[in-house]
């Protein structure tokens, strides 16, 4: 796009300009117009040089590092600049971090998803820092007329010890900017990391705790109008007609328009458009039979009983193993829909003009936002700029483009700068849910050995609702995974640790069932299976057996598994591999006051190198608490085509008093960093379910747990 | 539409809005004080918490017509330099993940700590029960409240 090839001079000019229109650098973030300059307690930078797309160094020594990836609370706005600062050898306390806009020429993978940001950034971001450091060293050598190899860097300074010379980066930046970079610059040896592995605070802490504009909903622009968009209340409905006469008579209402089976109310304030949309008289058309969760369950049962001609994975002959078994265990696990319930409801800003389109807001896939809107509006991508705000949660919901499209369409049709606001009810009823599904397991036991494992499964609108190459694949000689998709009008989407978030529950609980059947300790049983997987080198699996065993042994040790237990407290175990990271958890559960109380969770993690210890801990702990809350309480049902819950009065979220103490240990495996935003979540429902079984003898196979409260307390 | 004169963060503001407009939208849309967050609109999540005459209140469910001459304090007005002991504690404990609910959490915590300087875990859990955090920062919120209690 046109703005992508800014030369250095333009970049500097633009960066110091105030917000609006063409913007890169300092000020576009966080509802431009309210904030002219980034907060810099260390004084105003007096001009700066761009060392590369990631780094600007001011002549006063202040270093600005771009954070190009979307921030949804996963901590990449802190962790990725840390990678740059480490190799730059910059004092972190003197770094300013700025959110970069979408810029596919200069950055790659500006994506919040798949727990992949740190993994993918690990080398390139460090190279960006190392390259700038090289140029500064070369500049110092040139200015002091000494060999470059005799110079060293530390905390934003270059030193030449032999001549006792020292200069901060700002003093060298003008010379450095004219030096050519070699093809390869060395990266630091991991042993020399000084910043990576330490606990660094969220770079937006100050703005968050003082309530400064930061999120999509905080966007303000000159002449901006607010819009709410009404969708068909039931999946499978379309727009018939609407009467906006009452709405149009209300104060603060600018316009009512319709597009794509939706009706949009545009006005001067959020409340005006809320009242205006409530006054609309809309008729919806129902074309087919409306769906229900009850029908989905019946359909799942039919599907999983259908013979699969195309198994997702097939090792050995599972049917023979079942036929030959001394005993066959069978269990069916059921997964409910879940809404994402990001605390910041969906919203987006768009200003569509003939020659330029500005998109601004909380979106996990800014590049897709640009291509999607270019397609939808039939314009060239080059005229679209995308800016990402900090997001009040993502969890997968903001990978989708429905709210972006709302803003772009309303702005196009009204020719106004538009902030679209979804109410919580809009957010919870518009779909893109964690898909509902059913998972039926059979275990064939022969001579006290697990000889066969057959998963037959089905889920809504999901190409593959399984993780067929994950444990216990590779550990059972006859192993088959079948899957069927159930087509539905209900829209589904990636929900924190997609598929893993339920697969881990069903798989790890069923393994527990098998262990109990065999009279084995559930943890030892898994270790036994993993040991057998280790012997089968020819079998392809996604996980590394040794690292899997490593986290299990660590959590066993941390929790004192198998040693004397506290009275009235029962333990359950769960482990899972996802997004490159191995996680094993032990949950301690008590039944108190007729309620399930999760008292404490032990968690061992092997995510490779930990970049930001504070961020890493909070991602894992957050994943545990989030996963626990949804397993305890979360369920969305479809009734007559509609979601049966619309807000937090009916959709119970975990609250402080329901949170366990969480103890986390990261294994120092030395491997390159892997995911952290999602892997903490999948094991916890199983660890708790298995602890509930230990406490009560009741095996819960259908989430959420709260539905089974009566069975548990007898 | 009606004119209201309200006192927010020690300053008087005249706003012209419909009488049923929730205080939250007056703060956000009319006064540009966007630190007070919209989360549910039905007093279930606590993201919109402000102080009304020192009490933690859900501004999403408080119509402007009921505000009168009560003194409103929002996250922006909690301290001049952003250095209220609770704000400092939130930074020290590095509480925030996405950060969206945290202004509401802080406002609830401040009102609570003003009445109870030596809170037990139970009292903290009781006081914070109305604030939802989807990211699951609750344990760090609790930790920050304890840090702040020691300093206040």
What does it look like?
The complex is a heterodimer of chains A (714) and B (152). Chain A is α+β, with helices and mostly antiparallel strands and 714 residues long. Chain A is built from 18 helices and 27 strands. Chain A is globular and about 80 Å long. The model of chain B has no long low-confidence stretch (mean pLDDT 97). Chain B has 5 helices and 5 strands; from the N terminus they run ββαβββαααα. In chain B, a hairpin with a 2-residue loop joins strand 3 and strand 4. Helices cover 34% and strands 16% of the residues of chain B. Chain B has 152 residues and is of the alpha+beta class. At the A-B interface, helix 5, helix 7 and helix 16 of A face helix 1, helix 2, helix 3, helix 4 and helix 5 of B.
Show the largest interface: A-B, 67 and 59 residues
The CATH superfamily label of the largest domain in chain B reads: Beta-grasp domain
* Largest pleated sheet of chain A: 7 strands, mixed
Low-confidence stretches of chain B: none
Task: For the record, give the distance between the C-alpha atoms at the N and C termini of chain B, rounded to a whole number.
Answer: 42 Å
Largest sheet of chain B: 5 strands, mixed
The CATH topology of the largest domain in chain A comes to Aldehyde Oxidoreductase, domain 4
Oligomer classification: heterodimer
> Which architecture of the largest domain in chain B does the CATH hierarchy give at level 2?
Roll
Q: In angstroms, what separates the terminal alpha carbons of chain A? A: 65 Å
Please identify the structural class of chain A as seen in this structure. alpha+beta
Query: How many DSSP helices of chain B?
Result: 5
């Amino acid at each position: 796009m046109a703005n992508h090839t800014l030369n250095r001079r333009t970049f500097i000019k633009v960066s110091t300009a105030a917000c609006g229109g063409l913007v890169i650098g300092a000020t576009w973030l966080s509802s431009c117009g309210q904030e002219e300059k980034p907060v810099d307690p260390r004084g105003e930078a007096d001009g700066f040089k761009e060392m590369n797309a990631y780094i600007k160094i001011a002549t006063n020594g202040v270093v600005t590092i771009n954070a190009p990836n979307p921030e949804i609370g996963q901590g990449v706005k802190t962790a990725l600049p840390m990678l740059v600062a480490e190799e730059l050898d910059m004092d972190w306390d003197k770094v300013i971090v700025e959110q970069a806009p979408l810029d596919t020429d200069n950055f790659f993978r500006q994506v919040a998803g798949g727990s992949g940001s740190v993994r993918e950034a690990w080398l390139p971001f460090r190279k960006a820092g190392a390259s700038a450091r090289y140029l500064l060293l070369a500049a110092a050598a040139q200015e002091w007329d000494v060999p470059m190899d005799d110079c060293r860097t530390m905390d934003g300074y270059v030193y030449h010890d032999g001549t006792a010379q020292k200069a901060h980066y700002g003093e060298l930046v003008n010379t450095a900017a004219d030096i050519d970079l070699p093809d390869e610059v060395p990266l630091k040896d991991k042993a020399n990391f000084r910043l990576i592995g330490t606990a660094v605070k969220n770079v937006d802490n100050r703005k968050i705790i003082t309530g400064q504009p930061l999120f999509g909903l905080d966007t303000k622009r000159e002449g901006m109008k607010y819009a709410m968009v009404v969708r068909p209340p039931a999946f499978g409905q379309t727009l018939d007609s609407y009467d906006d006469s009452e709405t149009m008579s209300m104060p603060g209402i600018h316009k009512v328009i319709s597009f794509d089976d939706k009706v949009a109310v545009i006005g001067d304030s959020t409340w005006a458009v809320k009242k205006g949309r409530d006054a609309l008289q809309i008729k919806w058309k129902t074309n087919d039979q409306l769906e229900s969760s009850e029908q989905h369950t019946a359909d799942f049962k039919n599907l999983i009983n259908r013979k699969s001609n195309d198994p997702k994975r097939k090792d050995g002959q599972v049917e023979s193993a079942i036929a030959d078994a001394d005993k066959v265990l069978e269990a069916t696990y059921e997964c409910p829909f879940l809404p994402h319930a990001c605390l910041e409801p969906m919203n987006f800003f768009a200003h569509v003009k003939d020659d330029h389109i500005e998109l601004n807001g909380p979106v996990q896939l800014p590049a897709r936002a640009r291509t999607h809107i270019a397609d939808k509006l039939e314009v060239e991508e080059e005229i679209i700029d995308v800016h990402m705000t900090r997001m009040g949660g993502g969890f997968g919901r903001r990978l989708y483009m429905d709210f972006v499209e709302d803003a772009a369409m309303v702005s196009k049709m009204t020719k106004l700068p538009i902030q679209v606001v979804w109410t919580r009810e809009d957010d919870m009823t518009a779909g893109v849910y964690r898909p509902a599904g059913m998972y039926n397991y059979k275990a064939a036991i022969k001579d006290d050995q697990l000889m066969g494992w057959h998963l037959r499964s089905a889920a809504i609108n999901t190409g593959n609702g399984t993780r067929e190459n994950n444990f216990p694949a590779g550990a059972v000689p006859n192993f088959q995974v079948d899957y069927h998709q159930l087509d539905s009008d209900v829209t589904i989407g990636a929900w924190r640790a997609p598929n893993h978030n339920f697969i881990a529950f069903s798989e790890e609980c069923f393994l527990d069932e098998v262990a109990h059947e065999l009279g084995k300790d559930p943890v030892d049983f898994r270790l036994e299976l993993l040991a057998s997987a280790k012997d089968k080198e020819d079998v392809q699996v996604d996980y590394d057996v040794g690292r899997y065993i490593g986290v299990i042994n660590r959590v066993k040790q941390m929790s004192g598994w198998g040693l004397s237990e506290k009275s009235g407290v029962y333990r359950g175990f769960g482990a899972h591999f996802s997004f490159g990271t191995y996680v094993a958890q032990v949950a301690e559960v008590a039944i108190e006051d007729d309620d399930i109380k999760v008292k404490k969770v032990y968690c061992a993690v092997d995510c490779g190198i930990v970049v930001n210890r504070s961020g890493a801990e909070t991602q894992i702990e957050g994943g545990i608490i989030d996963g626990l809350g949804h397993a305890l309480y979360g369920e969305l049902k479809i009734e007559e085509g509609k979601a049966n819950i619309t807000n937090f009065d009916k959709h119970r979220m975990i609250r402080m008093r329901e949170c366990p103490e969480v103890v986390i240990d990261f294994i120092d495996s030395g491997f390159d960093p892997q995911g952290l935003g999602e892997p903490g979540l999948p094991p916890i429902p199983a660890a708790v379910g298995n602890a509930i079984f230990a406490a009560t003898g009741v095996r819960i196979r259908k989430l959420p747990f709260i539905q089974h409260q009566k069975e548990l307390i007898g | 539409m009606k004119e209201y004169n309200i006192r927010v963060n020690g300053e008087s503001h005249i706003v012209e809005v419909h009488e049923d407009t929730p205080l939250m939208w007056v703060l956000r849309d009319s006064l540009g004080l966007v630190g007070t967050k919209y989360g549910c609109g039905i007093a279930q999540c606590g993201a919109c918490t402000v102080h009304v005459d020192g009490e933690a209140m859900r501004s999403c469910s408080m119509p402007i017509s009921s505000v009168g001459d009560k003194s409103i304090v929002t996250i922006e007005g909690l301290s001049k330099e952003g250095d209220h002991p609770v704000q400092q504690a939130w930074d020290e404990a590095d509480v925030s993940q996405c950060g969206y609910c945290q202004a509401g959490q802080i406002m609830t915590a401040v009102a609570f700590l003003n009445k109870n300087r030596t809170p037990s875990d139970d009292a903290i859990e009781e006081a914070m029960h109305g604030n939802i955090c989807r990211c699951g920062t609750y344990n760090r919120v609790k930790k920050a409240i304890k840090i702040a209690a020691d300093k206040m």
